[in-house]
Amino acid sequence: MPPGFGDGAGGDGSADGEPALSRKDFQSDQDVRWCPGCGDYAILSAVQRLLPELDAEKAEHVFVSGIGCAGRFPYYVDAYGMHTIHGRAPAIATGLKASRPELKVWVVTGDGDALSIGGNHLIHALRRNVDLQILLFNNEIYGLTKGQYSPTSERGKVTKSSPYGSIDAPFNPVRVALGADASFVARTMDRDPQHMKAVMEQSYDHSGAAFVEIYQNCNIFNDGAFFEFTEKETKPERALFLEDGRPMTFAEGAKGLRLDGLGLEVVDLENDRWSVADCLTHDASDEMLAELLGRIFWDDPDVNGDDQKLPRPFGVIYQTERPTYGDLLHTQIEGITEKKGTGDLDALLREGDTWTVGG
Predict the structure, then answer these.
(1) Choosing a second label site near 239 at 20 to 30 A (CA), which of 114, 246, 310, 328?
(2) pTM over 0.85
(3) What are the two backbone dihedrals, phi and then psi, of residue 190, each rounded to the nearest 5 degrees?
(4) Contact status, residue 65 vs residue 89, Cβ threshold 8 Å
(5) Which parts of the chain are beta strand (E)?
(6) CATH numeric code, 23-231
(7) Shortest CA distance to 93 belongs to which of 116, 112, 114?
(8) Smallest Cα–Cα separation from 48: which of 163, 200, 155, 173?
């Protein structure tokens, strides 16, 4: 058992005379082996800074990953974890959470791992509302296998596996999650560590399947894919940071989003025609509003209009409360046990028709 496990030290202070945990307590003894400059380093740092602040003991956290660059994550966090097989992290995590509901189970995956071979596992974990924190690192490329286009790569993307440009329409992870009836859907970015940490904390506090898409830069095979949203020169105009109960404004308050019929429109708040009062107020519980925000993707003229670029939303896009898979499962088990008793496994194996081999 790693140092500090099971010692009663909670995330919000000392317990039983033990010192409070710190980021260092969640740093493993493994050398972090991602390419220099990879956005995964920032995500790892945000998680390690968040974990000591949460209301759980160190031994209660489990990180489950699939295959890809993100799959290395459990090695670098000094907590329990499992590096599973390609696309199957949500399935493994579902089994773990169902059998050990007291654990805090995190799923770490990538756009290729979760949305290609793992697509069905992801959507069923979301629709079942399994109480997991699912962190999807989206770099719009297959990084570990050296630069093939992924399910989120833009149409026309030239890669080793699409030398003449990808002809596939890309997946929009947020809309995939909304379509799978996820109860918590959010987006953040590797180059805004404070925002990333805050969104992760909100996902942790949510009861149910929490899906967080993280824009993550792959500086080797897809450098700058999200720079228009993350860099200081363009970020104010291209990123809309959502806050529940606050008007949707951006560009340092100079612009906002209003509802125009059944679509969204950018308005200039520096002229006399529009004011903040005309802008939409964010309500993360509004499913129809979440659908509108989720449609903002790749500046599609069919969605955004021909003459404007809508800002990409970041933060909690949608959140609702409903019974979790674990709640329903264990309620059902308790009901069956109360009605039929605990059962006898040995008797079950021997009931009905049996035979002896080689007798």
Answers:
(1) 114
(2) yes
(3) -65, -25
(4) yes
(5) 61-65, 80-83, 104-110, 133-138, 184-189, 210-215, 239-241, 249-250, 255-260, 263-268, 312-319
(6) 3.40.50.970
(7) 114
(8) 200
For the chain, the domains span: 23-231
* Tokens of residue 6, six digits: 């099971």
Per residue in 131-185, pLDDT (tens digit) is 999 999 999 999 999 999 999 999 999 999 999 999 999 999 999 999 999 999 9
Question: In the numeric block, which tokens belong to residue 82?
Answer: 């499992």
The amino acid that residue 345 corresponds to is L
Q: How is the chain split among helix, strand and coil, in percent rounded to 5? A: 35, 20, 45
State how beta strands 210-215 and 184-189 pair.
parallel
Which two tokens mark 295? 């449609």
Q: Which of 89, 129, 131 is nearest to 108 (CA)?
A: 89
H-type helices in the chain, by residue range? 40-50, 73-76, 89-99, 111-112, 119-128, 173-179, 193-205, 227-230, 235-238, 287-294, 301-304, 325-340, 345-350
How many residues can be counted in the chain?
359
Residue 104: both structure tokens together: 């805090």
Between vectors from CA 152 to CA 291 and to CA 252, what angle results, nearest 5°?
55
